[in-house]
Amino acid sequence: MSKKDAGERARDQRIARGAVAHYDDAAYYDHAYKRRRHDVRFYVELARRVKGPVLELGAGTGRVALELARAGTTVVAVEPHAAMRARLAAKAEKLPRAARERLTVRAGDVRTLRLRTTFALVIAPFNVFMHLYTRPELERALATVKRHLAPRGRFVFDVLMPDLRAMVRNPGRLYRGPRVREPATGRSYDYFEAFEYDSVRQVQLVSMVFQSIDDLGDLRTLPLSQRQLFPEELALLLHYNGFEVTARHGDFDGGPLTSESESQIIVARTRPSSTP
What are 9-60's pLDDT values in tens digits? Predict the structure, then answer.
């Protein structure tokens, strides 16, 4: 194997590890994102307007799915990672009985999922599609969406707006973030991030570094790989896979998409001439 091939293989392995490592500790994941509520309100209100069953792809620990069920929506929550799925199921047991009966939790991969039903609304909140790193993976995921959309159904998802400032950050530098606490032990950690952008693969490689404030030997690094999807690239992918974009927003209040937007919120449907 040439030095170049070895480097490519190592990069592929880093991306693969960064696709899953963030989801191994479901308790910390819950703790880290417990204050993220603006997107939950958006998806709950969307489901109310659609008035039909919802399929959530990449449901995580149930941040959105549980609130959908509480609000009266029938939802199938699909999650590939066992730790996340187990925590979702445990939290679902604490729902009121009526809400619990509206929620189904399933194992599944967005690229291969095939259920024997269709949905008025398919959603993929909080950057799920940023873990699809190649065009074939994205196209298989879009085929899954088409397969499960009812006639006149809607596909709604959000991904980050690519941040050019992050892409050009010095990969050898650690950028300090706010101090964090590990929920299982109560220990506090100084938190840092390092960024490395692969411009060929369009993947941002983030290293999340946790340094215990009490024990210098307690140093942990957690990788995260996120495929960057530019707005017009995303529009093309949807178009050539049989979708039309009916709306896109730059925030969860319906604001316009701009270069300063943190996220892209996409509302799409299958084109009339394009059937699953």
Answer: 888 899 999 999 999 999 999 999 999 999 999 999 999 999 889 999 999 9
Token pair listed for 144: 């899954």
**What is the C-alpha to C-alpha distance for residues 62 and 78, in angstroms, rounded to an integer?**
10
pLDDT in tens, 161-207: 999 999 999 999 999 999 999 998 999 999 999 999 999 999 999 99
**And the tokens for 32?**
């880290």
pTM score, two decimals? 0.95
Residue 276: pLDDT band with limits 50, 70, 90: very low
